[in-house]
Specification:
This protein is mainly alpha-helical and about 70 residues long. The chain is built from two helices and no strands. Keywords: Membrane, Transmembrane, Transmembrane helix.
Length: about 70
């Protein structure tokens, strides 16, 4: 007899371990796998549109932009 009782919808501890293993695999595949893939594709898209770094920080504006 265990101190913790099983939920009424699970017939045995083996079923509880199967459910927990399924949840663990789901979190690893969907959470880290698809989440990491989505993050990387978003990062790559942002690098393609903006660039990895700005061309120049705190640079004076070009001469053609200041002369009117």
């Amino acid at each position: 007899n265990s101190a913790e009782k099983l939920p009424f919808f699970l017939p045995s501890w083996t079923a509880m371990y199967v459910v927990n293993t399924f949840i663990l695999v789901w979190v690893l595949v969907v959470g880290f796998g698809l989440g990491g893939w989505a993050s990387m594709t978003n990062f790559i898209k942002q690098v393609d549109t903006f660039g990895l770094f700005a061309k120049c920080y705190q640079c004076p504006p070009p001469a053609s932009a200041t002369a009117h």
